[in-house]
Amino acid sequence: MKNSIGIDAGGSLLKIAFEENDRLHFRKYPIEDINEALEWLKMIAINKTVYLTGGRAGKIKAEYFTNAEIVDEFTAACEGAKYLMTQEGVLLNEKSLLVNIGTGTSWFTIEGEHYERVLGSGIGGGTFMGTGNILADSKDFSTLVNLSVNGERGKVDLLVKDIYYPEEPPIPGELTASNFAKSVANASISPADQMASVLNMISETITLLTVQTAALYRIKKAIFIGSTLAGNKPLQDSLDIYCKMSGIDPFFLPNGQFSGAIGAMQKK
């Protein structure tokens, strides 16, 4: 990979992987800063082969790196994840689900050298950012994550325990009976409460789809990657709780947000 640069140009972020002084380095930029990022990249890309993946790969090739090669984004994500799994000592021969939470979310079965995309959803980081802009009037990812930590989703969501009160519910009472169902009746809801509800809705939905897909393919382990998890401990913690509650063993792959860029630069 020494003479290669991998660029994953997604819907929200530009992620870059490159090797320097025998070490793998990573950078990422908001897609709005694409011109600044690629002008810098052109300076370090001399005598290196550029590999592109993601939805904006064609645009970058046409405008910046006409000699670059384009790699299918699903192939790149899986190959990059396999590389990182090897680095982390995760067994590749154990059949797992690979869950890539980017702007949307994709599910792959992965076992040894074989992988297959089996499911996709529009729920993901784009959902979090879009609803955050509407509900909290912010486009800053860190601000929205912090709001979700400080909010009380029980002011927004109708919980199972609310329905059964004062009786004991037959399932965990903190589970959601209906997302945002209290919004009309509760005037004291804050943006933080709403973002706590949004983050939980995303987590519960992704867990539900992960559990159903895992059952279909008889899988017990889920490897999570994707930019939406980076700097988002609340989402990781929520997924961890819900997956374990449902009998799934979750693993959050370090540097997993750069899987696409790493997989692209591995192309021979």
Topology:
Blueprint: E1 4-9, E2 13-20, E3 23-30, H1 34-44, E4 49-53, H2 57-63, E5 69-70, H3 73-87, E6 96-101, E7 105-111, E8 114-121, H4 125-136, H5 141-150, E9 158-159, H6 160-164, E10 176-178, H7 191-217, E11 221-225, H8 233-245, E12 249-252, H9 259-265
Characterization of this structure:
The chain is an alpha/beta fold. The chain has 2 domains: 1-72 and 258-268, Nucleotidyltransferase, domain 5 (2-Layer Sandwich); 121-252, 2-Layer Sandwich (Nucleotidyltransferase, domain 5). The protein has 9 helices and 12 strands. The chain has helices at 34-44, 57-63, 73-87, 125-136, 141-150, 160-164, 191-217, 233-245, 259-265, and strands spanning 4-9, 13-20, 23-30, 49-53, 69-70, 96-101, 105-111, 114-121, 158-159, 176-178, 221-225, 249-252. Strands 3-2-1-4-5 form a 5-stranded mixed sheet. It has a 5-stranded mixed sheet with strand order 8-7-6-11-12, with helices on both faces. Strand 2 and strand 3 form a beta hairpin. Helix 3 (73-87) crosses helix 9 (259-265), helix 4 packs antiparallel against helix 7 and helix 7 packs across helix 8. The radius of gyration is 20 Å and the shape is globular. The termini are close together.
